[in-house]
Design goal:
The chain has 220 residues and is mostly helical. It is built from 7 helices and no strands. Helix 3 runs antiparallel to helix 4 and helix 5 runs parallel beside helix 7. The protein is elongated. The chain starts with a helix and ends in a 6-residue tail after the last helix.
């Protein structure tokens, strides 16, 4: 392929890493805020990392369309460009889920007992962070065996988020008392579910990264 094409694809991958890195840092700051009793500074850092992500993803979409129009890639090259086009959508959803998680918890964090945060929310968010970190590793890898290993490790972390959210939901519902504001509790649970959804998005991205290298059918 032409040098200009190779450079254009490198820029797309670099932008993907930057956006994914910002989502990772936003979720890390959120976890710090939760651990440190609703720390306003950490909430601010989390929100800052998500600023202008939609605009950056739009720029990536335009860059991908330009590559398709100018270079008409074929075979594996086409597979790669199309996969990154689909990855953009997953990044947008991961960023949206992250915003909802941060906003929903910040608005209702006074309602969540410290032991629930420590026992359920922290490991839930930690697993989501691990999945995000491994997704970043996958972008830098061309080794199919390493990619498959990372993918299977991510499946483990994503499964953990499913189980932990179910446990967290059950625990909070058990603690509901007469007179509690159910609308706020529902909003808080919906926010916590976003952590699990972020892990889901990483699996979708990992699936596409594997598809770039291995072709065949998309996994899970």
């Amino acid at each position: 392929m032409l040098d200009n094409y190779i450079e254009a694809v490198k820029k797309i991958k670099s932008s993907t890493k930057e956006i994914l890195g910002n989502i990772l840092e936003a979720n890390r700051a959120f976890l710090n805020a939760a651990i440190n009793e609703c720390d306003e500074d950490e909430f601010g850092k989390a929100r800052e990392k998500l600023k202008n992500i939609s605009s950056k993803i739009d720029d990536m979409d335009n860059a991908i369309i330009k590559v398709l129009a100018l270079y008409s890639p074929e075979a594996k090259d086409l597979r790669e460009v199309v996969a990154y086009f689909k990855i953009d959508n997953e990044l947008l959803r991961a960023a949206s889920n992250s915003r909802s998680l941060i906003r929903g918890f910040k608005d209702n964090c006074y309602m969540v007992e410290k032991e629930i945060i420590a026992e359920y929310l922290v490991p839930l968010q930690t697993s989501a962070l691990k999945a995000l970190e491994m997704t970043l590793q996958m972008i830098d890898s061309d080794d199919i065996d390493e990619l498959k290993d990372l993918y299977h490790l991510m499946i483990v972390e994503e499964d953990k988020t499913d189980e932990l959210y179910s446990m967290l939901e059950e625990k909070i519902i058990q603690k509901i008392k007469e007179g509690d504001d159910f609308a706020k509790i529902h909003k808080m649970l919906r926010a916590f579910r976003r952590s699990e959804k972020i892990a889901d998005r990483t699996i979708s991205i990992a699936n596409l990264l594997l598809y770039i290298q291995d072709g065949g059918r998309l996994r899970r």
